[in-house]
Structure formats: C-alpha cells, structure tokens
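User: If only I could read backbone structure tokens as easily as an amino acid sequence. Underneath my words sits a plain record pairing an amino acid chain with its backbone structure tokens. This is the protein in question:
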Amino acid sequence: MTKIRVAVFGAGGAMGATVCRAVVDDPSLELACVLDPRLAGIDLGQATGILGTGLFILGQKEAMPVDHVDVAVDFTRADAAFDNALYCANVGIHSVIGTTGLSSEQFDLIQNAFENSKSSCLIASNFAIGAVLMMKFASQAAIFFDTAEIIELHHENKLDAPSGTALSTAKRITESRGGEKFIDDKTTAELPGARGNRFGAGVNIHSVRMRGMIAHQEVIFGTTGQTLSIRHDSYDRSSFMPGVLLAIKRIHTLGGLTMGLDILLDSVTSFE
C-alpha cells in the first residue's frame, strides 16, 4: 500500500508536534516534511522528542519538497496558515487546516484558490469528534428553546476569542432557527462584556482563557421550567488526532474548500 506523504506546518508547536507523532505512529502515513521558522535547521527529534525520523525542520514553505508531499497539515497562526494554504493550492498539495482566526475575506480567497487547484482544502474549527457532535446536537436542540448561551474555555496561549468552535456553533444554531431570534434578557446594568458578545440569533458567547485548560465548550439552552447543557471537554491534544488523521486520509475525496469534518464523519462507523 502506498503511504500518504504528510508535511506539518508549525511542527515545533504543541499541536504540530502532536500531529507529527500521530503521523509517525500511523502505518499508512509517512511524515515527509516538517516546517517551523522558529526552529529551522534543528533535528525534529531534538525539538520535539520524536526520534528516528531523520528529518530536519525547514524554515520556509518554499523549501518544501512538493513532489514528495501529498497533504500538508497546518496548526499555526491565522496569517501564516492563510499564506501556507495559498501556496499549497498553487503547487497542488492538499491542505488540512486547524488554525482558527481566519477572516471571511481570507476564507473567500482560500476557496477561490482551491477551486482552481488540483488539490483540496479542509478547514475545521475543531477536530475532536466529540466537539463536532456537540455542534451537531446543539443545532438540533436550538429550535426547541427560547434562550441560548455558549461558554468556551481554552488555555492562556490561545490567540483568538471567541474560539472558532464557539463561532461555528453559534452560526449553526442561528441557521437551524431559520432567522428566528432567541428572546432578549432584561439586563440593564452590567460591566462591559459581562454578558459576553451576542451573535446571530441572539446567542451570547463567553470566552475564558486560563492556564490548565486545553479546549472546552458548553452550550446552555433554556425555556420555561427547564435547561439543557451540551458540553465537550478535550483534556489532551491527542483528542484531536482521530479527526486530523481522518482528514488526511480522506481529503483526496473532496474538492475545493470543505468546512468542518461533518461530511467525512458521515461515512465513518467506528474509530477503532
């Protein structure tokens, strides 16, 4: 069986290193290239503790051996991920992106680039299977309740707030309600930001940034006499890897730009 050759952008970061380990441990994949401008020229084993690959970290995407890479995985910053995606589209490498914080204009440019490329791109705000299901369940529940709030909690080094997962959840909730807004509360006095930031159908989003967290989200719905809470917790970055590996292995079946894992999960019956 021919192995899928994988490049990892941001290989020296916490998520990048976790992706590298997952690729190395999967017999159907080959870690072909690692990139991180902060650690250019350093052996991957020295930088991350992943031994035996023989790979040295490249500093620039232009140094990537494009003829020996099938899929590139990106968990970097939004500006870098945007540039990397356009480069991958131009040279014909599939792109799996977990970076959040991209603007709507950047999404449009990425979509256009991959629509005119022989390769495909998948962008997901969260690769944890439980988080994808949380968003799906929240969109199903939204039509039955009068109020909704989202509380998302992440580690202190996360750059964007609210999280991409929270924004995706609020968007899906809004779409499921078909334009019908949740009822307003009667708050008249508050500290600025105390009620979060209202989105779409009237979903308030609250962001927590705290050391010790990884990625957590709770969606709370309320109506007369009852509430419903839908919560997902990632306690370790390994929780994202089944989704990342699924995207790497199935992205060749897609075309253009795909948002989220949902379309791939529909064909999966088990992650055993």
